Amino acid sequence: MKCIINRRAQFCASHRYWLPELSETENIQRFGLGSRFPGHGHNYVLYVSLIGELDEYGMVQNLSEVKKVIKREVTSQLDYAYLNEIWSEFQQILPTTENIARVIWQRLAPYLPLVRIQLFEHPELWADYQGNSMEAHLSVSTHFSAAHRLAHPDLSYEENSEIYGKCARPNGHGHNYHLEVTVKGEIDPRTGMIVDLGALHKVIEDYVVEPFDHTFLNKDIPYFAQVVPTAENIAVHIRQLLQQPIQELGAQLYKVKLIESPNNSCEVYCAEPASSSAIARESESLLSSV
Ligand SMILES: [Zn+2]
Ligand SMILES: [Zn+2]
Fold this sequence. Notes:
Number of strands: 10
Bound molecules: zinc ion
Helix content: 25-40%
Shape: globular
Radius of gyration: 22 Å
Distance between the termini: 17 Å
Oligomer: single chain
Order of helices and strands: EHEHEHHHEEEHEHEHHEEH
């Protein structure tokens, strides 16, 4: 029986988005504050996921050995380092979150049966890399507050209460929604980016956060005049809103996760032939991390 195990590690490091072949103006234009001399830092959190059969001791791999390898090959080298210079890989391709995840995969792959590298630059920005050449996933999280009422327009109050319980009460209630948007793309062989992060934030802000924040979804968002704004339907609508603009940025929307409360969340993936197997893989890995 195969199982996935996850090991967490941390390092603090600095970096700078700066390409010497570009002028100062071009660097500022492209990378904004990230281009500032002499750089800035992050407290990175790394999750290394391994897959394998259980051995006679009931383990995929001995975690104390895994810990040693991660420290030797990655964290002892990157901790308190200036990333642009510490590894030669980063002189070729800038140390963005997605590219650091890719290079960490390359460094660990000879020693560990990797299935995924996940790297958080901070709690609202992280990358996933699964060993597919230059392909990576980048996720950002944001939030908005909105009210809604769950009631199907064709049903009576009694019928709606039967289905939606307290959520059908006539004047609605509110949530602080947390939204996670994951995009998929190819890591640029020079900038290390799968998408312009500033442009991605702006798309999410313009198409979702600004129009949804501090609204009564049923009344203020035309889509929800007929569609009941359950978390699932909100996520589906956000997927519709974001798909095209993200494609125009040169990446692909991969997943929308909407967290309605600490107890309720839902995920929708973008339709593609392999999506059901991707979801199956995802739930497999989620189960394994519980
Ligand atoms: Zn940074
Ligand atoms: Zn609700």
